[in-house]
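Structure representation:
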Amino acid sequence: MKRWASATIVGPPKRSRTSRNHRTVGKSLRGYISRNKGGSSGFRKLTLLKKRVTSSKLLFSTGELLELKRIFHSQNKSSGERVLVYALSECERNPSIGKTKRCVGSIEDMIDFVVSVLGHNATVRMTENINGSNWNVMIGKVKGINDGEVTKSVSCHESLYPYLLHYCNSVPKVRVYVSDIVDVEVFKVKSLSSH
């Protein structure tokens, strides 16, 4: 069986039919294993988080949109302008009730946010790679973190922006699962040959 990736799946404590269904071993689905690449926005993204001393000097607010558009060469009503507006408004939006969130542009800020929510004894889990993205994939082995019981978790997702930016959030009372994501075609061949 070709293992494309291992992903952490975060689900609500009350298991909905959909989320339970997608955590089932053998469940086939169209894979979208995402790591933003900059897309069609015209931005060429830097691949590393900046140091705090650098990221703290960068403009980052809707009040500075005109200057940001000038710096990143974004025309009015362009995809570049839409990327800037969306990221800034998401980062400035108040969190939902019970949720904690922060946009981070430096690894130090990310670590500080994680420690503020989880404490110093945290385990890092991430998608290993994006192989299999847009292919038919299947959920392989699924393991519940904390034996599948409700726990604390922080998720950081890469946001589309001219430089590397992560949207980090913590929702209270979640169940966290780690799952292998496998290639359906290779699994079918191995399944047939083993009968």
User: Anything to note?
Assistant: The CA atoms of residues 87 and 115 lie 24 Å apart. The two ends are 15 Å apart (CA to CA). Residues 3-193 form one domain. The longest helix spans residues 79-92.
